[in-house]
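TASK: fixed-backbone design
INPUT:
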């Protein structure tokens, strides 16, 4: 039997106010903080404990870009659109609300803001989502609104 969560989902399957189920967590380990920063954001606040202690956060913090990447990973793995791929068109209102520290465990909540058929291509439309990434204390660390390209049912 095919997993029902794997069914293809279409623009018409969503309504403003719907909450999408995003299961899974991402543990921010010291190793992940270091590896990500060494490759993508090589600043002392992400790489050097002594230097980081002297800065705003009082210790090592994860790169905001790592938090954003972890959010994307959680969304992709949760497959809230079933077999429909997550095709990003844009991100608006991106806000790094709070620092993410080694040892934090991240999860994502997603709410449908809007659905809009494409005015030029009737086989697709746009799904706007509000994503809030939270730590293990349910404190928001990242807010953003995604616009995704989603197929429409045959018109």
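OUTPUT:
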């Amino acid at each position: 039997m095919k997993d029902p969560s794997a069914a293809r989902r279409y623009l018409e399957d969503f309504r403003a106010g719907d909450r999408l189920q995003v299961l899974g967590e991402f543990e921010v380990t010291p190793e992940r903080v270091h590896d990500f920063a060494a490759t993508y954001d090589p600043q002392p606040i992400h790489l050097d404990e002594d230097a980081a202690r002297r800065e705003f956060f009082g210790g090592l913090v994860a790169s905001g870009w790592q938090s954003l990447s972890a959010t994307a990973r959680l969304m992709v793995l949760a497959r809230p659109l079933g077999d429909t791929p997550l095709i990003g068109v844009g991100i608006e209102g991106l806000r790094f609300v709070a620092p993410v520290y080694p040892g934090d465990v991240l999860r994502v909540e997603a709410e449908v803001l809007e659905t809009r058929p494409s005015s030029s291509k009737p086989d697709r439309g746009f799904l706007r989502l509000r994503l809030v990434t939270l730590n293990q204390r349910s404190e928001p660390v990242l807010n953003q609104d995604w616009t995704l390209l989603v197929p429409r049912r045959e018109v």
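COMMENT: The longest strand covers residues 105-117.
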